[in-house]
Amino acid sequence: MKGAVIGASTVLVVAVVATICVVSFRGSGNGERDEGEMSTSVKSIKSFCQPVDYRETCEKALKAAAGNATSPTDLAKAIFKVTSDRIEKAVRESAVLNELKNDPRTSVALDNCRELLDYAIDDLKTTFDRLGGFEMTNFKSAVDDLRTWLSSALTYQETCLDGFDNTTTAAAAKMRKALNSSQELTENILALVDEFSETLANLGIPSFHRRLLAEHAGGVPSWMPDAKRRLLKVSPGEKGFKPDVTVAKDGSGDFKTINAALAKVPVKSATTYVMYVKAGTYREYVSVPRNVTNLVMIGDGATKTVITGDKSFMMNITTKDTATMEAIGNGFLMRGIGVENTAGAKNHQAVALRVQSDMSAFYQCQFDGYQDTLYTHTSRQYYRDCVITGTIDFIFGNAQVVFQNCLIQVRKCMDNQQNIVTAQGRKERRSAGGTVIHNCTIAPHPEFEKSAGKLRTFLGRPWKEHSRTLYIQSEIGGFIDPKGWLPWLGDFGLNTCYYAEVENHGPGADTSKRVKWRGVKNVTYQHALQKYTVESFIQGQHWLPQLGVPFIPGLLPQNQSGRIH
């Protein structure tokens, strides 16, 4: 894998660093050291590293890895190589391996790290492999992709460390030390991309100035085979519905279990493959693996086709591993299926669905649980006409995710607890991650209605330092605490989070008594329109049409929220 990273196309990265070098040299005239005393290589490295957040880490890494390299191309290759090398080194940490026998949770956490860090390396590789030969007019799209993949690589490293929570060995500290430089280097690459993006925006590159108020979009692109295009427009039982494979518990399909069908799905498919899962309760743990791409999974309805499980954190496994279902392979679409975790409130973290599939969508689905129901882990995700139920942090993670027309229902937590809808996990300020809840309804679940006045409920809390969540043009029920937002621990993240409420309505939408943290922002309609829409935040106009899912590209007309579209 490492060789593939270095050998892949560097066209975009060369363009990035070439631009950065120009900017850097312009700003380096008052440097602390006479440039004439430095070698050409050292000067090139200092220039390359100037815009980043962790300059010392960048310079030390390149001096050790780049040799006498001076060209932006060679330095770009070197920064990716050394970042991948540092992650791989963390996986091999023998000191951590030797402590496995002391604590079961540590053993599980390390197994998770191997998997997660492999994802991180893969996303670094993807930034090279998929962006060669782009056109000038595609710069904006290319930069959006880069930011998503690099943000995901950062999140996987952080999730590895999260897995050591509540372990009893010294493994957590050692793993954090092992990953420190790779995290800083990954964030440095993000800084270079941000600088590049800003420079091009200032130059007026056409693709950086796109239409934001768009008509409602749907349909599928002309390049998709006609049979597939028709299939995504119809539902089970309708004329023309002919899936590639059918799952049925009663034996009337090709397979009786979802996992059996998944084992036969073509890998790395560039075309849509449709799996129809007939009505029934499927008691299995489902994973759509990384090499299964462009899979469409269609059920008979979110309360008729249900995937169920009951794993929880109390079973000495990580939160990630409690998921009843996980979607990893890119381009995944689920329609008309329910996923639940029945572990209950007393068993704490218990995920129903975990998603890291880039450009994935969920339409007319339902996700039921209590704490940590929906783990929107990484990448670009879209949820439309879905129901999500839970108690504590039940929408969490660091994906770039937009919810539209969804019903978010708060269930009854335990008497010594309080409900929190979101716990967004953006650790780095440059990360692309964030949760946008647009034109949704936040309401009490029927089981909670009688207790809604006794148990407090909040819109969210900052799981990580730069947590980012926005409620836009949504209906907020009166059971939401007037303070709105809840601290995680002390003053952690209160000044660095990014929380906003824009044009909401309903008895709980009054913001006059909200907490006054620095991180709670007063965001205007126009700013939300520019940055936090399906089109601008997850670039949905480029990939949602091919999935056949309806979506609102921008916002509803100002002062006209509350309508279902």
From TrEMBL:
Leader sequence residues: none
Annotated localization: Secreted, Cell wall
Organism this protein belongs to: Miscanthus lutarioriparius
Full protein name: Pectinesterase
Biological or metabolic pathway of the protein: Glycan metabolism; pectin degradation; 2-dehydro-3-deoxy-D-gluconate from pectin: step 1/5
UniProt function note: Acts in the modification of cell walls via demethylesterification of cell wall pectin.
EC top class named in words: hydrolase
Domain Pectinesterase inhibitor: 40-192
MF terms (GO), sorted A to Z: enzyme inhibitor activity; pectinesterase activity
Keywords of the record: Aspartyl esterase, Cell wall, Cell wall biogenesis/degradation, Disulfide bond, Glycoprotein, Hydrolase, Secreted
Cross-referenced Pfam families: Pectinesterase, PMEI
EC number: 3.1.1.11
